[in-house]
Amino acid sequence: MKVPIERIRNFCIIAHVDHGKSTLADRLLEATTTVSAREMREQILDTLELERERGITIKLVPVQMKYRASDGQDYTLNLIDTPGHVDFTYEVSRSLAACEGALLIVDAAQGVEAQTVANAYLAVEQGLEIVPVINKIDLPSARPEQAAKEIEEVVGLDCSEVLLASAKEGTGITQILEAVIRKVPPPSGDRDSPLQALVFDSIYNNYRGVICYIRVANGTIRTGDTVTFMATRKSFQVEEIGVFGPDMRPVDELGPGEVGYLICNIKSVEEARVGDTVTSQRIPAKSPLPGYRKVKPVVFCGFYPLERDEYPQLRDALEKLQMNDAAIFFEPESSTALGFGFRCGFLGLLHMEIAKERLNREFGVDLVATAPNVIYQIRTTAGEMIEAHRPSDFPEANQIEEVLEPFIKITSFVPAEYVGKAMQLCQDRRGFFLEMDYITPQRARVVYELPLAEFIIDFHDRLKSVTRGFASIDYEHSGFRASNLVKVDIMIGGDPVDAFCFVCHADRAYHRGQEVVRKLKEIIPRQLFEVSLQAAIGKRVIVRQNVKPLRKDVLAKCYGGDITRKRKLLEKQKEGKKRMKQIGRISLPQEAFLAFLKAGDEEEE
Amino acid sequence: MRKRSKRERSGSPSAISLYVHVPFCRSKCPYCAFYSLSPAIGGISSFLQALEGEIELFKREGDLPRIRTAYIGGGTPSVLSLPDWKRLISILERAFTFLPRAEVTVEANPGSLTGEHLSLWKDWRVTRVSLGVQSLQDKDLLVAGRAHNRRQALDSMAKITGTGLSLSADLLFGLPGQNLRSWGETLREILSQGVDHVSIYQLTLEEGTPWGERPQNDLAEGYPFYRWAQYYLEKKGLLQYEIASFARPGRWCRHNVSYWTGGEFIGLGPSAWGYMNYERTRNIPDLAEYCLMVSRGNKPVCYSERLEGDRLASESTILALRTRWGIRLQDLRRDWCKDWPERMNAALEELPRDLFRSSPGRIALSRRGMRVGNSIWERLLP
Fold this sequence. Notes:
Chain A is of the alpha+beta class and 605 residues long. Chain A has 5 domains: 5-183, CATH 3.40.50.300; 196-280, Beta Barrel (Elongation Factor Tu (Ef-tu), domain 3); 299-369, Alpha-Beta Plaits; 376-483, Alpha-Beta Plaits (2-Layer Sandwich); 486-604, Elongation factor 4, C-terminal domain (Alpha-Beta Plaits). Chain A contains 13 helices and 33 strands. In chain A, the strands form 7 sheets. In chain A, strands 11-10-16-7-8-15-12-13 form an 8-stranded antiparallel β-sheet. A 6-stranded mixed β-sheet of chain A has the order 2-3-1-4-5-6, sandwiched between helices. In chain A, strands 21, 22, 23, 24, 25 and 26 form a 6-stranded antiparallel β-sheet that branches. In chain A, helix 7 crosses helix 8 (349-363). In chain B, a hairpin with a 2-residue loop joins strand 10 and strand 11. The two termini of chain B are 30 Å apart.
């Protein structure tokens, strides 16, 4: 049953991670009987196995709910769930573009956190009506008045009518639904104008091809229409349109203000870019809807198959993953140590980890990830600008005029007693102090500018640890700045090994070079000859160590003419070396590389 | 028709080697993988009887070859009493013809060796005694679970040299807690006891031994010990003629050299290995089974393999490279494996030159090469 546009409400939920967003969404689905109690399971909108396991939302899922309000009218509510982690801020901004209102959830015990503010500002910028909700009022440590005060003071929203809820216990849910109807404006749109529908997300389905999530702004879209994607100028015939309930339910038509899906035999996500506008081929709209900027990956690392002959499987898996996650970037690369693989770009470390796990779980690919790095811009002495996605993209040291690295502006909410430690951490990570103020006597807001490279290593974990888990952060990119950066080559037996090279600040090159060489010394099996391990900047060797020649198993007793025993030992020994990688004269077991990359992980944790 | 062996082809049977395994020990060392059991009453006598039976089985196949070297090992041959030894000697004498200058070695342990044993051996035809000294440090001996102490070892060595037999000492390195200082001390003292020959073995963790199943902590790394022995023993006039063996000139163990150079040998006793006519056999490593099989007129063999082609070539090369003489290029027989010389060269050419001794027409490992022998041999596997 279709409702008129005045009775449609499109809204999303924004919150700091862990403030109970997904649970609240579950309750709304239940209260509107969109999902029967029988079908109900925890975090129903988190469809990825990984999302449930980690308790986070990665992909946004739109769902349509029918609700009979206290005024006796039937309303259609489109809820667009959003991810909470900073890595996925771009997904948040996408879902905001499809809404007129947002529920801002704040944890009654924790109060306003960094992402509460960041996401609320995003929503305000988009012109959304914001409905503040204080959740988890059932907690013994809940301080709803304090939380409300923080919302007023820090975010600047009127909290005179703030809603109190406990999604866990199901209290306050009806009030929330009523508030959505009362406060969130209905969409505006003209049925008779040419079609304009925003593609705010897309996924790839093996049977149906690309499924676009759309929000119609003007005009209507029907099955059988021929539509054009305005950015790519590609046209397709509409096979099916429908709404999410939360499963896909076909409908005949989607009109202004409605949210649903579009299937039209699109084979590649590239042909239906997120942010594009769909219009009618017959009567095209004059201009597209404002889209959003294409997100650029900021963290890069190499993915290599564990078994070398699984390169094609890895490529297939990455292609499929990219269809569901357009933010992933990849291109082939090869490494002397690891063979053929891909240089992959991600929105952040969590994004990278999740991609790695999804490749493993959903596509069964075992892979090795090299240490992550950021993009560098290099101005050469010849005046050229080079973008380096990996250390090996660096030109010779004498051809480098200057190196620029990406910086982020990081905002952290920290309890007063940990401010000193948090600032010390930022200083240690080459941060520039921007500002600091107290939002309440107990909590401060600290703003720094920080090299992204320092952030991606383990900044978040370190900050959590020095503040006993109380600090929250949000960041935005703030452009490139020149830094005194050097590329450090690691050489084994005189040959540089790309997998171990890294870029770091000149002041730390010696220390990190030493660390890498020491680690390598532990894992490189002894050879028949002495092997030198060196860390060098250009031609200048800064660290040097040697692996002494083989010493173990010098000889064994020959058992009364038992030659076979010795032979078996030798055969066993040979078998063990089969998996080794030859670098110059040196054989390195694959395990050594894994151990090296692994050791890096552990240090970061 | 049975394929004729080398000695048959040459007309008169040429002399070969003989190994007799005496499978008894008073106590079992925790690292040892040789077959041995404690000398229960009746066990020794059934062993000797079966040994005689096994020789009879050989006789059925034709005349027994003459013996140029013999090695009576174990186990601990010195745990046999004098009457048992007399019986063993008469069994061997009745069956075999020993060449006039045959080398005959008996293995002995300090705990069980007596002067009477030595006189008996000397009066028979024993030329050398290989004594399981292992170490002259009581601490090491205790750790290694040996049944003797330093005093007994010194005493046994004096007795052996006093009898005029050539003395060889087995030493063990890489023991838990062992250090270079105590190892150096042991080597020095051994030399002052008048040894002609020293065999040094690195403690190896073998499957099926107590230490193999539960490795000890703080096992000493072998390299420095080995390196020191190479330096010190050669300086004192004992030449390294094989990976694990050092001897005064002319005193090398001809029996062992024969193993490394592909010589044929008969192996008698439970778990003994034999090698005849490119066929390697192993006797069953169980005394009761061994006796039973022999009494039924069956050869007590539990494993055999025929070597040919690249396996034969590979093994011959690897074994020869254990010795200081290495392998003579002209001995790399093309009929074993046509492309072996090329394969061997390819496997060795990328290695540093200083791992080899330069010697025209031969390939042999240098001292440095012997220290990493395992890795070199590995490249020569077929």
